[in-house]
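## retry 2 of 3
previous attempt timed out at serialization; input unchanged, resubmitting
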Amino acid sequence: MKITIFNLLNAINCSGIEMHSWGVAADVNTRQYLGSTESIDLIGKYLYSYVEFPHEIAPEYKVSNGADTIYIYALD
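## retry succeeded, writing output
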């Protein structure tokens, strides 16, 4: 496991965020899967979160669904 993925999972565990605030997806389009205004094809495995993690863990993408910012992190 890459250290960045470990740090991301550790941040989720330490922050105590609820299961409905994050998830994982593979090979999806952000508009279709997350309802975002942006249309980005996510090829591979990704973790998405409605909660921003510490700045040491930078998301690959930030998208919006109009009400929320969704932070997307690569797992591959």
